[in-house]
Amino acid sequence: MSDTPHPDGDLSGKHIVLGLSGGIACYKTAELARALVKAGATVQVVMTEAAEQFITAVTMQALSGRPVFTSAWDDRAVDGAANNMAHINLTRQADAVLVAPASADFMAKLLHGRADDLLSLLCLARRVESCPLLIAPAMNREMWAHPATQRNVAQLRADGTHIFGPASGEQACGEVGDGRMLEPEELIEELIGFFRPKPLAGKRVLVTAGPTFEPIDPVRGITNLSSGKMGFAIARAASEAGAEVTLVAGPVHLATPRGVRRIDVRTALQMFDAVVPGAGHHDVFVATAAVADWRPASLSEQKIKKNGSKIAPIFELTENPDILAAVAKQALVAGRPFCVGFAAESHDLLKHSREKLERKQVPLIVGNLGPATFGRDDNALVLVDAQGHRELPQADKLTLARWLVGDIAMRLADRDSPTQEKKQ
Ligand code: CTP
């Protein structure tokens, strides 16, 4: 994470009760507390006795900037209430309780509504409608896989608990498998997503992102400077908005947004095959990929050598299929997906965007200046449709992606609303 304010900035105004039960993953929760504060949240830490075996309340107080609560008998006033009822008062101003790590034992306790320490007490005493319970399990893989734990997970979900993770990987005990607590930055991403509005709930969104790479020989190829950041931000924003998202990515080194299904491809033809056959099963298609327009007509099996020659080789190129145009053609017949194209231009942005709108037969083109944005974390967009255009001013790509996704969700809702015409 960078030291600039979180681009999401999105936990500002949120008050989080951060509960720690016993587990070695408590060391990650120290970093999580810091990241929560950096993202703008206020954090009230509550620790079980077992958690205190792994990390001290002093550390958590220093990182959260607030005194830590560990005992149900702690009579310090909470938010002005001095009635010696920390187990009630601690959650009354909270936007969520996040238990990280949630041990197998703590989950079993939650399931049974047991309340024999402050953390389990306050989980039981919170107002379920206004203070959701989120847990990040952390345990040995056998403990996680045990039928008892899996039963508890299913029942906790049915009771309305949100479960973040766990991840798979190497464990503190040396074994490898499911049960690692998510990393702090992953938990922050989950939490931010949790609080976002869900205008695309129940919708399926397909996104292409990044460049394509068109090989000339085993070591060379044609590609471009697209970083994939805008497409990845759109995939994340759509997932946060509640959609089921598939991201078809060209060769980029970016982390997959949480909850997004990713298909990696290299060439335009591979991207075409990954997108076009299944596109009709989606509600929205956003084509942000900078697909190479041309590929070498033939691939040399071996590296092309100079062999002392001063004459540069000449490559014959052949055109790649237009993925967006192919999906848009299907959509004209099937009524979906709603297609959004991108226009990366070097000049005359509005003019070229409008031309693309007509040429590709899509309802929305998002124009941006390619050289000014490739590889950067910010961008400025212009949304062009049949009615006109609207500018989204310079902002970080995630912010722009959220605006765009909100705009797409409104267009879908307008299209699907039978009362819309009457309203206008
Ligand atoms: N696109 C695509 N498949 C291609 C080429 C482009 O799906 N083979 C999509 C891009 O993902 C983008 C839109 O079409 O959403 C516009 O891409 P762009 O390269 O800017 O447009 P072109 O049609 O290639 O036009 P030009 O190169 O002349 O600007």
Number of helices: 15
Which range best describes the helical content: under 10%, 10-25%, 25-40%, 40-55%, 55-70% or over 70%? Answer: 25-40%
CATH class of the largest domain: Alpha Beta
Rg over C-alpha atoms, rounded to the nearest angstrom: 25 Å
* Strand element count: 19
Major β-sheet profile: 8 strands, mixed
Under the CATH scheme, the architecture of the largest domain is: 3-Layer(aba) Sandwich
Overview of the molecule:
The protein is of the alpha/beta class and 424 residues long. The protein has 2 domains: 15-195, Flavin prenyltransferase-like (Rossmann fold, 3-Layer(aba) Sandwich), CATH 3.40.50.1950; 204-292 and 317-419, CoaB-like (Rossmann fold, 3-Layer(aba) Sandwich). It has helices spanning 26-38, 57-64, 86-92, 104-112, 118-125, 141-145, 147-158, 184-195, 229-240, 268-275, 323-334, 349-360, 370-373, 397-416, 420-423; strands at 15-20, 42-47, 96-102, 133-137, 162-163, 167-170, 176-180, 204-209, 214-217, 220-222, 244-249, 261-264, 284-287, 294-296, 317-319, 338-345, 364-369, 378-384, 389-396. Strands 12-11-8-13-16-17-18-19 form an 8-stranded mixed β-sheet, with helices on both faces. Strands 2-1-3-4-5 form a 5-stranded parallel β-sheet, sandwiched between helices. Strand 18 (378-384) and strand 19 form a beta hairpin. Helix 4 crosses helix 7. The radius of gyration is 25 Å and the shape is elongated. It starts with 14 loop residues before the first strand and ends with a helix. Bound molecules: cytidine-5'-triphosphate. Cytidine-5'-triphosphate (CTP) binds next to helix 11 and strand 16.
